Queue: 4 jobs
Job 1
Amino acid sequence: MTKTTYENELRKREFLEQLKGGEGFAKDSLAKFAEAIGQWQTFTDNDDFVNFDKTKATAYRDWLRSRKTKTAAGQLSLRTQDNYLRRLKRFFEWLSEQPGYRNKVLKNEVNYLRLSKGDARIARSGTTRRMPTLEEAKKVIEGIEVKNEIDMRDRAMICFALITGCRIFAYVSLRMKSFDKVEKRIDQNPGDGVHTKNSKKILTTFFPIGWDEPEQYFMEWFEHLEKKGFQPDDPIFPATLSGIGSAGYSKEEVGRTFWSSTNSARKVFEKRCADANVHYYHPHSFRHLVVSILSKTRLTEEEKKAISLNLGHEDVSTTFGAYGYGSMSDEDAVKIVQKLKDVQNSEKGGLILTEEEKATLERVMRRMM
């Protein structure tokens, strides 16, 4: 290892330690920062960080834009480019304040690590989200013919995703003790090994979606595990048993181990959607669906805040913006705008826009500004 490589790695480690210890960043976030810095090192052939300047910053930005990938698009998306640049910019901003780098790594030159305003706007606008309708969710769930434990587990897990809005990495790490059967509360506690976003402790319950069967199916599964002798630290959604079960060697029973990752759980959704002849909707789309269902009801500000907290959001606008209304199509927006004529022509003002329709109109107006 050369001296330059050693110094670069030392600075990188110090920065990541600052993020972890000083700012509480999670492991996954640290890995993304490390990857962004690694991209810069690849581009510069691990040149000394002290040699950073605006010329290199501009060349790096162009390099990201032209870099070939194995994706269908053949290049990095604007969102990925933006993420690399923003994280790298934060690193060099920090570095500019460290001894030996002050007056060498200049903050005004670090600002060149950015997309154009137009590209940044596109990168951060997100993409159109696909989520199932409630009818499609019903078709997937009711289409599971329960013949064994695996069928029962899969049905319960999809139901749980629908009525709680929990993230997949949380519910595959839930323990039996995480669920209070009497109070019907789910304690997503990182202290118990539950994986949550930013290691946040989240207390949630079942959302009312106008369909009772999902809660019933989940409760049947939970009580089945209790009768089977599952203990407080055992998983609620265990991995498929690998080895000899009660009926000999079989893939029709669950074990008592957690899935090693979310990949197997995602395949459950993929398989069950295919079995029901429904487009594959990834697990997170069920989180959007439950918010979409709730956003169509008349909610008080207090109720909106409660729903947000149950989902682990601190900001209500995150829940009822990006989640609740963000998935509405442009065709729906056109219909709402057309409805305005009826509202204006109604002498009694009997036609009133819903909160969802108002939010969509605001979104359309923002696009036009």
Note: The two ends are 53 Å apart (CA to CA).
Job 2
Amino acid sequence: MLSSETLATFFAASILLGLVPGPDNLFVLTQSALRGKGAGLMVMLGLCTGLIGHSTAVALGVAVIFQTSAVAFSILKYLGAGYLIYLAWQSFRASATAIQAENTSAVSFGKLYCRGIIMNITNPKVSIFFLAFLPQFAEPSRGPISLQLLLLGGVFIIATILVFGGIALLAGTLGPWLNRSEKTQRVMNKLAGTIFVGLALKLARAEQ
């Protein structure tokens, strides 16, 4: 299997990549600030569950389809953009009391977990990123490439949990202070909706 040096280098690179502002960590940040640490952590778990799918796809070679097929890439990307627009619409129309209700609802945590999965799975750029990034650290002389790619995917997920978990805890800590008034909650909701729209437009404009 992979050497400890390779794994350490890959882990450090994964941590740095997780800290770069992007759709996923912005999603975790806004949901934690709006709904608390638990909500942010559930979104993070959903995103990481999606990464399992991308890791498996790359290991099995399925992600090559999205790199070579413009139709498959476009379909998945527009599905993802459409879902983000739906989340933006929900944020723009949500009231402050609705946010408070979701804070104590176990069902809402399940929904946030599913949102994280859907947002990650419907972003074809993640599969293509994995397809380009993971093989750089594989070592053919150390065993089956597919198993190495799965191992690298697992290490990347661990790094993501650490980074996104930290973001969720920090944003969740600041969230109660930001949520003291209904006016502040409404402003934050509109901010979240605006971020969703921006992420949707960015995804819709993504190219192979």
Note: The radius of gyration is 18 Å.
Job 3
Amino acid sequence: MIANYHTHTWRCGHAQGTEREYVERAIEGGLKILGFSDHTPMPFDRGYISPYKMALGQMEDYVYTVQSLRSEYRADIEIHIGLEVEYYPAYFEELCRFLSGYEVEYFLMGQHFLGNEIGDSFSADPSGSVSRLTRYREQTLEGLETGKFLYLAHPDVLFFTGDASVYKREMRLLCEGAKKLNIPLEINMLGIETNRHYPNPLFWEVAGEVGNEAVIGADAHMPGNVVNPEAEAKAREIARKNRIPVIETLPL
């Protein structure tokens, strides 16, 4: 593994360590490219504050900190500034306007919530609802169609407990849409490390049949997660088993 584009910071409220520690672990582990992609701030209304994202007022410090490390470590590693973003239709255009004032090189889509988050469904909650599964597929594809996203992080984050054939039908439509848009799908190392419901074997079976390409993402929330050879090996085995090409570096 020579590149990781999925790295968080303490600003999201559920990650640990300093940015410098992430960079030094990446260098120690042999990475040539490190992209920071913390959970985006979001211009919510009604005074809502998300417990999962950095605040709007933290954006300037986030960009400045990563820019400074990029300059300091330029001889050792290539560093990029990104964000992990949900596609929330009610806020997406305003978010893009807000972020236009900052150096942000890429968005990863991580659709942790349906709707616009406030009072809606958390994707990782187990449910057998077919309508919820369909909503996830439709909202995710609508977001990808904006052309704003580098890749789809943990595309199998929606925790569906219903009929496997229904799941495969909906995820096939998602995979076909991503392939048409030439957007890679992420095999998520954090899910492997923490024994989550993803990576989902059924999803990656479908992705292999459709012919999608994959990216391996650390989804690092601690410096030690940036490079994890054991989790990486399991991610590569998922790709190998399903004959899915792994993209090692992405154009930014």
Note: The beta strands are 3-4, 33-39, 78-85, 106-109, 149-152, 185-188, 214-217.
Job 4
Amino acid sequence: MNTDKNDNKIKILIIEDDPVITEFLCTGLKYEGYEVTPSTGGKAGFDALQQGTFDLIILDVMLPDTDGFKVCEHIRDCESDIPILMLTVKKEISDRVKGLDSGADDYLTKPFSFDELLARIRALLRRSGRIHESKRLRAGAIVLDLETREVTKNGKKINLTPTEFGLLELFMRHPHRVFTRETLLNRVLGYDYDGGTNIIDVHISHLRNKLDDRPPHLIRTIYAVGYAFHPEGANT
């Protein structure tokens, strides 16, 4: 679970009018232990900011009542230093520059994977001093470095694909938690992926092979449900 220094939940305000993306964000972030408040437009976002205190804002550029650039500028005019992560379908460099110039701290284009979104959120929270997080995750002889994105076992580097890395990071952050295939699919491959869930089984199989994951297994199959990570099964 992600917590601040007072052991309270990190509070995130989402200003996004797309119900599919909003549900995707709310479900995933709550699963990670964040407290989430969704709003569907600029005015609703302003009202939420006046009524509560937040640690980070996820702000869409295209809103029904205004645009995210104006919302961002207004937040900064109020002298708020809250980290702002902007979301947009626009990929032009000029739009990214405009977003950053309006006061955003980071910029993520749609579609995006939840794994990348979480990495951006954690980086912004660390930068702002709202969380203090270890740069490495460990399970027995396995070490995952969050900065270099390298994985080693007994000091030997293991080459993982971005999807395999995302799965392993998710598992190591949440030992013993059971993940359905649908959850893993959305979290690692993104809300826009329209393939079957059996692709997750393929990625898990490859990850197990690369980790030399033998019985009793680090990554355990939960029959008819999905997978769970058991660090006590780490092979030396």
Note: Helices lie at 19-31, 42-51, 68-77, 93-101, 114-127, 162-173, 181-189, 198-211.
